[in-house]
Amino acid sequence: MKLSVFYDHITEACTQRKLPVQEVLKQVRDAGITGIEINLSQLLDKKEEILENFRDADLCISSIYEFYDWGNQGDLSHGRKQVETAYEVGAGKILVVPGFVSAKEAAQFRRKNHSYKELAACMAQNEKIRKMEKNLSELVFYSMELAEDEKAVAVTLEDFDGKLAPYATANGLLYFMEHVPDLKYTVDTGNFAFSDEDAWEGYEQLKSYVVHAHCKDRGEEKKLRYWNCRVNRGLATVPVGSGYMPVARIVEDLLDRGYDGYFAIEHFGAKDQLSCIRESAKYLKNEIKWK
Q1: What is the SS3 string spanning the chain?
Q2: Separation between Cα atoms, residue 31 and residue 40, nearest integer Å
Q3: pTM across the whole model
Q4: pLDDT, the chain, mean
């Protein structure tokens, strides 16, 4: 099993523990983690220094992610840079957060979300969605052009935990998968709870598109602050394996299906990132039953 972790967690751990990044990276590697998930802008800001630190710690970049506003601004130059950088550093995946819609549009999509057919018809008429589709399609094509004889860097979306994200629900994600040829899915085991959807059901609906995985758990909260509570029992930040999300079930199913990619540990906002990273890595390596 190949594990990765978000670079943001490493930098947070440096601040929390007052440790140099090299020491935290060493401890991350000692925990059995070999990959890093990193934001494109963060990487480009200090690329040579960051890459040198990764090489010294025997770590690679597993995926590069970035946020865009393609619903309003269609410039694809930074997206192309994301693909080019992935090829340069040997990352096989990129995660794109293509933009958001207005609160009014998001509410309209939520009202239609009970039916994929109705939601798809509604999304197809939305100008921002069409712009996102166009840029995603062009980015996927650009990645394939650059690939030549090697395996193309996969362009992916995730089930993003945001009210204004039109890909926060399983049906919303499915729309993009079906309308952007060769677009792939980074499954996040904890994010469907944000939209009050069952994580296993969402995964089942989309698993044929999965090429990457974020392992995120959620802790229960006594007072929920969200608009629905059918499935959502809280969104508290907890180490992987200590919450109520079906992380093990999804991971085991992926492995049974022949998935050989990275499982990225994710827990933004943890009060002690280094302890959470160790605990999450231990759970994924020792508690998951896989063949």
Answers
A1: CEEEEEHHHHHHHHHHHCCCHHHHHHHHHHCCEEEEEEEHHHHHHCHHHHHHHHHHCCCEEEEEEEECCCCCCCCCHHHHHHHHHHHHHCCCEEEEECCCCCHHHHHHHHHHCCCHHHHHHHHHCCHHHHHHHHHHHHHHHHHHHHHCCCCCCEEEEECCCCCCCCCCCHHHHHHHHHHCCCCEEEEECCCHHHHCCCHHHHHHHHHHHEEEEEECCCECCCCCCCCCCCCCCCCECCCCCCCCCCHHHHHHHHHHCCCCCEEEECCCCCCCHHHHHHHHHHHHHHCCCCC
A2: 25
A3: 0.96
A4: 95
The residues facing 188 across adjacent strands are 214
> Which fold would CATH assign to domain 2-286?
TIM Barrel (3.20.20)
- Contact of 158 with 191, CB cutoff 8 Å: yes
Using CA atoms, how far apart are residues 122 and 104, in angstroms rounded to an integer?
13
List the one residue out of 225, 234, 217, 192 whose CA is nearest residue 276.
Answer: 217
Report pLDDT digits (tens) over 254-270. 999 999 999 999 999 99
Taking the C-alpha atoms of residue 220 and residue 120, their distance in angstroms, rounded to an integer, is 32
For the chain, give every domain's residue range. Answer: 2-286
pLDDT in tens, 103-130: 999 999 999 999 999 999 999 999 999 9
Structure tokens at 23: 């020491």
